[in-house]
Structure formats: structure tokens, C-alpha cells
Specification:
This protein is an alpha+beta fold. The chain contains 13 helices and 23 strands. Strands 8-7-11-10-9 form a five-stranded antiparallel β-sheet. Strands 13-12-16-15-14 form a five-stranded antiparallel β-sheet. A five-stranded mixed β-sheet has the order 18-19-17-22-23. The radius of gyration is 54 Å and the shape is elongated.
């Protein structure tokens, strides 16, 4: 998408769409405001009508009470009731006793009756007197104005209406809302009140909303006109600015292309003193600075190659395998300005397991995998100087190199630019240095293992055992945790050597050492204490736990069927175990207690586990 298209899209999204949305919102607000105004006016009219209805009901009640007090004998005399109604200006009077009408005078369309209950003169049921002041037609005219109309019905029957074209029913009138009658929109509010004979009178107040609708339409038209005017002005301004920006950017684009091609001699033309002129001046300064930096980079590249060669030479002195892989991979990636790289080691089943990563490999995985496959298929050897060391591959404009290291491979990749022959040679040199360093690490680790390992059994030797039990004792004292020791001795081992030979004895020791290692936990370190005697320090283990482990070892050894060296059948052996636990972490006392328990096991019949009578406590640290 071009800049002009993006600018147009920006104008539409930032100006046009919000203004249209604003126009819609304003029109809606104007309409809702006028509608709310009409609704409020109608509800106010309905409230006034309801108040009038209640007042008329109270007036009727006062008249009924006056009739009961001033002329109690007239309550059953129609002539007297009619005279009282005329005197008081009442529309209707009705007298009821026990559901039976005693007298009823006046207009049957009277509404809003007020009632009082009086005692009967003959001691019978009480008498109910109902009196109404107005008829439905007079009430409708009372609450109506030039914009407000009233409709009164009773049980679906029309009593009165002030509409220009009266309707015969209010069944289709909403209780609260709007309705169109005879082409006129009205806001409607209704209420219901009790009337004569237990019937209910429904009063509907309708307010003509034509004036408010016209006002809303005028407001919407004004808002629309203002919106169109603003959009026209905004479009004209945006078009002018777009042309100016496009011209300025075209000049900057041409200058940027020249610089991208390596031409730093042509400057961007500058006109005026605005921000674009300042940008052009800074652009020209940047061009001159880039030209100077390119000359310096050519000089620094040569110095960098020499520095990287020296860094690679220092790998041989590094004995930390993990750190060596991290530094080696990072140095190789930096040396050829690759985007990413990784070092992977052989997982043992032919698969590669990533050991360290530099940068983000996203998008480069396929190229790296292809280069690694080529390197492994070619059987490249980091120790063979006569063969090419690195294999290359290119996938989807991503170039990759892979070179082997002892028991692994180093690979790197970058986008858009293949690796040159000089870069491949540099990578080969650094990979060789890394391989030499890894071999030194292997030798160092092998020497370390030999220094602490018993050659016959593969367990830790006595020197290592002394270091372990001293460290575990110190930890037990520091964290106030129990420490136990298991010592075992092969029963009748001298007889095995004398009868079957020392090779058979060596086989017995190796098999028992394997059982001890299998029965020990991962945190434990079993050792050959001396001769046919083995031991293991059990951290965070009390005497009961140590005895359980010893019994597991003893029964496992007892179940062994060891092949005889001479091929004549099998051989069975047993072990005696002694266990002790320390409460204060004294390694000397702990060894002495476990050794004494072992001696007791040997002396009392062998092939058994004996534990020290009580946890070792010497009162001091060993």
C-alpha cells in the first residue's frame, strides 16, 4: 500500500468515520432528547390528571359524609337525595346496604366516587354512601388542553374522549409509550381508579408529539449540514497536506535509495525552514556520518578478525563445558554477523539435544536443520584438517552453516546474505578451537572421576566417602537434621577368594556394589570403605529408616544367584549390616558406632542387620 493510500485510509479512519459516528450520535441525542421531553410532558399531565382524580374522590367523600351527618333521613329518599345533589353540585349519589341499592340518583357516567360507611338506624347492616362530583365528560374536558387529550373507559366501554376523532376503545393503547391515532403521534400514560358498582375507570392521557418531532427533525438537519461542511473542509485540507507530504517524501526516498546503493555524495535538496527542511539537513549529516563510519568499519573489521582469533585461542583453557559452549557459540555468531545460532549435543540415540542458543531461531529452523543434516551425512570430523569442516544450506533466503564438535554440532544462520568463503574459514577455525577446548574438558572430568572412584566397584572411594560424610555431618548440624550411616561387610569373603579365586571375589564385590547403588536414593553416594566393606551416608534419615534401607540391601544380596567364573553353577553370598544415627553430626563417632554394630552382626551369626542401641551423641562436633 502506497503512502498516499495509507494517508487516505488514515484520514478516513481518523476523521471521516468518527465524524459520521458523531453525526449519528448527535442526531440520536436530539431525537431522544425531544422524545424524552414529550414523554416528560405527558407524564406530568398524567400526574396532574391523577391528582385531580384523587381530589375529586376526596370531594365526593366529603359530600357523602355531609349527607350522612346533616340529613341522615334523606339517605333512602330519592327526592331528598336529588335535592341534596343539586344543592351540593353532585353528579351522582348512590346508597347501598348489604349489596342492595337503596337509592341511586344522578348521571350514570359520574366518576371518582368518594364513599363513607354509616350505621343503620334500625341496627341492621351498615349503609355505604357514594358521591361523585364530576362526570367522565367534564373530567376529560378539565384535564385536556390544545396538546393534551383524555380518554376515559370503564370495563372496555368508552365513557368520554377529547380526541378530534374519538376512538371507541383503548384496548390498543399502551399503558406507557407512544401511539399513532388518526395519523397523529401521541405519548401515552394511563392510570386506573375504582368507580361505582365495583367497576374500574381507566384514564388515558395523550400528549401530541408533533411539535417535538418537528423540532427533532430540524435539529437533525442542522447537525447533518454542519457535519457535511466540516467533512468538506477537512477533505480539502487533507488533500493539500497530502500533496505537500508526498512531494517531500519523494525527495527523501530518492536520496535514501542513493545512500542504500553506496552513493553518499548527493545531498537532499532543502527548501524553507520548516520541519522537513530540518529533517533534510539531518539526513545530509547522517549521510556524511555514514560515509565516515563505513571507512572506519572496514578498518575495524580487520582488527575484529584478529581479536576473534585470540578469543578462540583462549577456549583451550576453559574447563566449564556449559560456559564453553555458550561463549563458543556466541563468538562464532558474532564473528560472521549471523542472526542466530545454537550448539546441540548428541542425546545418545542419534538425536540432537539443544544445549545453548544465541538469538531468535524463528524462521531459520529449516535452514539450520538442513545444514546440520548435511554435516552429519558428510561425516565431517573436527580433527581432520584435510576435509571441509562446515556444511552449508539455504532455505527461503536463509543461509545456514553447521560444523561438528566432539559429540555435537554448532550451527548458525542469517537472512538475505550467504556466508562467504572467508567467513566459512573463520567459522572452521573457531569450531576447531572449541573442539579442542571440549576435549580438554572431557579429559579434566575423566581425571576428576578417576580421583574419587573405586575402579573395581564403580562406587566412590574411601577418600570421597570421607569428604561426603564430613559435608553431610556439617549440614546435619547446621539444619538440625538426622544423619545415619549404613556399613556392610561380605560374609565369608575370604573363603570365596580362597575357594573360587580372586576374580570370583571381584565379581561378588561388583554385584553387591550394584545392589547397594540400586537400593540407595539419588541423594545418597555409596562408597567402597575398604576391602569387602561398603558404606553409604544417609542424609535426613533416622535410625529406623537406616535399618529399613539396610534390610532391603541385605535381602536383595541374599536373593542374588551369582554365576561362577569356572562355569559350574551359581554362587550365593550374604552380607552383615550395621547402622547408626547421629543427633549432633559427629562423623567420627558415627562411623565408630556403625562399625561396632557391624561387628556385632558378624559376631552374632552374620546375614543380619544390627543397629546401634541409641543415636550417637558425643556432645561435640566431629
Amino acid at each position: 500500500m502506497s503512502f498516499r493510500a495509507r494517508l487516505t485510509l488514515f484520514f478516513v479512519l481518523i476523521v471521516v468515520v468518527p465524524m459520521i459516528a458523531l453525526g449519528v450520535v448527535v442526531a440520536r441525542i436530539v431525537s431522544d432528547s425531544q422524545h424524552a421531553k414529550a414523554t416528560a410532558q405527558n407524564r406530568a399531565s398524567a400526574a396532574a390528571a391523577l391528582n385531580t382524580f384523587h381530589r375529586l374522590t376526596q370531594d365526593g367523600a366529603h359530600a357523602a359524609r355531609a349527607l350522612a351527618q346533616d340529613s341522615p333521613s334523606a339517605t333512602t329518599n330519592r327526592t331528598a337525595l336529588a335535592a341534596f345533589a343539586v344543592q351540593r353540585g353532585l353528579a351522582r349519589i348512590r346508597v347501598v346496604q348489604a349489596g342492595r341499592t337503596l337509592a341511586d340518583v344522578g348521571d350514570r357516567q359520574a366518576i371518582a366516587p368518594g364513599a363513607v360507611r354509616v350505621a343503620s338506624a334500625d341496627g341492621g347492616a351498615p349503609i355505604m354512601i357514594e358521591a361523585a362530583v364530576l362526570t367522565a365528560r367534564r373530567f376529560a374536558r378539565t384535564v385536556s388542553t390544545h396538546t393534551v387529550r383524555a380518554i376515559l373507559t370503564q370495563d372496555g366501554r368508552l365513557l368520554a374522549s377529547t380526541l378530534p376523532r374519538p376512538t371507541t376503545s383503548t384496548a390498543r393503547l399502551p399503558a406507557d409509550g407512544t401511539v399513532n391515532l388518526a395519523g397523529v403521534d401521541y405519548a401515552v400514560a394511563t392510570f386506573t381508579a375504582p368507580g361505582f358498582d365495583g367497576r374500574h375507570t381507566t384514564v388515558a392521557i395523550l400528549t401530541d408529539t408533533s411539535a417535538t418531532s418537528a423540532a427533532a427533525t430540524r435539529g437533525q438537519r442542522i447537525a447533518l449540514a454542519l457535519l457535511v461542511l466540516f467533512l468538506l473542509l477537512a477533505f480539502a485540507g487533507a488533500l493539500t497536506i497530502s500533496r505537500q507530504l508526498h512531494g517531500q517524501l519523494a525527495r527523501f526516498l530518492a536520496a535514501a535509495k542513493r545512500i542504500g546503493g553506496g552513493d553518499f555524495s548527493t545531498a537532499v535538496p532543502i527548501a524553507g525552514r520548516d520541519e522537513f527542511a530540518q529533517l533534510g539537513d539531518e539526513f545530509n549529516k547522517m549521510s556524511r556520518e555514514l560515509e565516515r563510519r563505513m571507512r572506519e568499519l572496514d578498518q575495524e573489521r580487520g582488527r575484529l578478525r584478529e581479536s576473534i582469533q585470540r578469543v578462540g585461542a583462549t577456549f583451550a583453557a576453559n574447563l566449564d563445558r556449559t560456559t564453553l559452549l555458550e561463549i563458543g557459540t556466541q563468538t562464532i555468531v558474532d564473528a560472521v554477523q549471523a542472526d542466530c545460532g545454537r550448539a546441540a549435543v548428541d542425546a545418545g540415540d542419534g538425536a540432537l539435544l539443544e544445549a545453548t542458543r544465541v538469538g531468535d531461531l524463528a524462521g531459520a529452523e529449516r535452514a539450520i536443520a538442513a545444514a546440520e543434516a548435511h554435516a552429519r551425512a558428510a561425516h565431517l570430523d573436527p580433527r581432520d584438517d584435510a576435509r571441509p569442516l562446515a556444511a552449508s544450506a539455504t532455505v527461503d533466503d536463509v543461509a545456514a552453516l553447521a560444523a561438528p564438535i566432539p559429540r555435537g554440532i554448532v550451527s548458525l544462520a542469517r537472512r538475505g546474505r550467504p556466508f562467504t568463503a572467508d567467513e566459512q574459514e573463520l567459522v572452521a577455525s573457531l569450531v576447531r578451537q572449541t573442539g579442542i577446548s571440549l576435549e580438554n574438558v572431557e579429559l579434566h572430568e575423566q581425571v576428576q572421576r578417576q580421583a574419587v572412584t573405586d575402579k573395581l566397584t564403580g562406587l566412590s572411594n574411601r577418600g570421597r566417602f570421607q569428604e561426603v560424610i564430613a559435608a553431610e555431618a556439617a549440614a546435619a548440624r547446621r539444619f538440625d537434621q538426622p544423619l545415619a550411616l549404613l556399613m556392610l561387610d561380605v560374609d565369608n569373603f575370604k573363603r570365596v577368594n580362597d575357594t573360587y579365586g580372586h576374580q570370583q571375589g571381584d565379581l561378588v564385590l561388583r554385584e553387591i556394589a550394584t545392589v547397594l547403588a540400586d537400593c540407595s536414593r539419588e541423594v545418597d553416594e555409596p562408597a567402597r570403605y575398604g576391602g569387602e566393606e561398603l558404606a553409604v551416608a544417609l542424609q535426613q534419615t533416622d535410625l529406623v529408616g537406616a535399618e529399613a534401607i539396610a534390610e532391603r540391601v541385605r535381602t536383595a544380596v541374599e536373593a542374588l544367584e551369582l554365576p561362577r567364573i569356572d562355569g559350574h553353577g551359581t554362587l550365593r553370598v550374604t552380607v552383615s549390616c550395621g547402622v547408626a544415627a547421629s543427633s549432633d553430626g559427629d562423623p567420627v563417632a558415627l562411623v565408630a558406632a556403625a562399625d561396632a554394630a557391624l561387628y556385632t552382626a558378624k559376631r552374632t551369626g552374620k546375614n543380619r542387620t544390627v543397629r546401634a542401641d541409641a543415636p550417637v551423641a558425643t556432645g561435640g562436633a566431629g
